[in-house]
Give the backbone structure.
Amino acid sequence: MDAARPYLAAFSSRFLLMLQYRAAAIAGFATQCWWGGIKVMIYAAFFAAAPAAAAASPMTLAQVITYTWLAQALLALTPWSADPEVALSVRTGSVAFDRLRPVDTYSLWYVRGAAWMASRALPRAALMLVGAGLVLPLVGLSDWAWKPPPTLAAAAAFAISLPLALALSSAFLMIVNIIVAATLTDRGVNVLFNSLIIVFSGNLLPLALYPDWARTALLVQPFAGMMDIPLRLYVGQLSGTGALLGLGLQAFWTVTLILLGRWAMARVMRRLEVQGG
Amino acid sequence: MPQILVEDLAKTYRVAERDPGLLGAVKGLVHRRHRTVQALRDVSFSLEAGELLGFIGPNGAGKSTTIKILSGILKPDAGTVLVNGRVPFTDRIAHVSKIGVVFGQRTQLWWDLPVSEGFDLLADIYRVEPARYRANRDELVALLRLERVLDQPVRQLSLGQRMRAEIAAALLHEPDILFLDEPTIGLDAPSKLAVREVVRRLNRERGVTVLLTTHDMHDIEALAQRVIVIGHGQVLADSPFETLRANVLAERRLVVDFAHEAPEIVMAGVEVRRRQGQTLELAFDPARTPTPNLIAALAAAHEVVDIHVGEPAIEEVIARFYDLHGAGEA
C-alpha cells in the first residue's frame, strides 16, 4: 500500500482538481453534441440511400448510432495531445522537480496523465448519456438515441474494456509526453497525433465499416484499443472469441507501449537539460 | 568521510545557434549549428554534515549546474560526486528522499492547489508517516508564519509568501541536506530576513547541512561561514568570507567632512575615491598607512568636522574578485 501511496495521491489530486473545470466540460459537451448530431444524420442518410449495402454492413444503423454517441462521449479518453502539465513543466524547467521526487518518474507521469483524461471524460460522458440516452427518446427521437448494451455479456466486456482503453491511452500519452520532453515543444506532436487518432481510433468512422481488405490491419493497430474495441464490445459487434481477442489486443498494446515508453524515457532523462541557469 | 564530496566535476552543454534574420532561419532548417559550452571544468570541494556553505559567482558561472548535479537531476560528464555516500544520478530515488531543494526561480508547489493540499500531496509522494508529517507541517507552518496562506491556491500568494511555502515544502520529509538556489531572489527586505532566519535556525537547531547560491551578498554575510566562489566553471576561492575580503580588498575607507571646500589630498598610499562638496571618501591600505596616523595628519592640516571609518561594501569585494579572475559574465 505504501508503495502505491505516491501514485494514488497524484492520481486523485489531479482527478479532483480537473473535475472542477465545469465550463470546459460543458463547452466540450456542446461541441461533441454538435458533431455527434451531424454524424448520426449522415449515417442515417447513407443507410437509407443504399439499402443493399446497409443490409450487408457488419453494423446496423442502430449500432452505428450508439457507437457514435459513445465515441463522442469518450473523446477525452483518447490521447489527443500531450499532457499540458508535462508540456508546461518541460518548457519552464519545473520538470526538474519531478526528478527530485523519490518516485519513478514514468509512473508518476502515467498516473497523472490517466487522471487528466479520466477526469475530462467523466463529466462529458455523463452529460452525453443524459442528452443522447435520455433526452432524445423523450423528445421522440429514439431511433437516433444512445441505446443500452444488447446483452449482459456485452455490458461486462465493455466494463473490462473501458479501463483497459484508459490504460492503453495513458501508455500512448506517455510516448507523446516523452517526445515533448525530448523536443521541448508540444506543437508538432499534437498536430501529428490528432489526425492519426481521429482516424485510427474509429472516431471518424467505426473501423468495422472500412473495406474488407483494410479491416484486419485496422483492428490490430494500437489506436483501435483506445476506442473502437470497447465500443464494438458495447454494441455487441464483437462477441465471443472476438471479444476475447479484442481485450487481448488492448492488453498487448498497453504492455508494449509501456515497455517502449519506459525505454525511451530512460534515454531522454539521461540527456535531459533543465532550462535556465 | 565528508557528507558531500565533489571531485574534478565537469559538465558541458550543447547550445543550438542560429544566424540572425530570415536567411539564418532558413539555414537553420538545413544545417543546425551547435556550440559546446563548458559549464563546469574542474570543480572539487567537500562539505561536512552541519556546514552552511555559500556558493557565489556571476550568472553562468556554474552554480546552478553544480546544484542540479548534486541533487541528481543532471548527470555530470566526468568527475566524482558522492552525497551521503551515494552517487546522486545513479541512485536517484534513495538520494532524493534525503535532500530538500528550493529553486528560487521556480515553484515546486502545484499552482492551482491550495498550499495545504500541496503539502499533503508531497507527504504522500515522500511517503512521510502521517503523525510525523503533521508534526513537521505544524512546526514549519509556525516557523515560516504560513497559517494565513494555507488555504490559498499557490498562484494567489505573494512572492515572499510563496518562497516561505516553498521552503516548508522542501522540508516536510526531514531532509539532511538542503540545497537553496537563489532563495531570496526578488524578495522584499522582511521576506529576505525571514528566509535567512529560517535557514539559520534549521542549520543550528536541526543540524541540516545547507548549500546556498545567491547573488545577494547580504545572504552570504548573514549566513555562510564558508564561501565558494565559482567562475568559468572552476572554483576560484574556498574560504571563510572574512579571509576572502582580506585577500581581495584589504583597503579601508575613510569618509571625511571638512569645514570648508574639500582640499586636495596628496599622500602616499591614499587614494581619493569620491569628492562631493565638503566631503571626501579616501581609500587606503591600513598595513601601509595606519588609520590613526592618517587621521592625525588630516586633522593637523585641515579643519575636520567629522570622520567615519568603514570597509568597502561586500558587493565591491566580490566585483573586484570577479575582475581579478576575469570571471565576469561571458
Chain B touches chain A through 32 residues (CB under 8 Å). The mean pLDDT of chain B is 85.
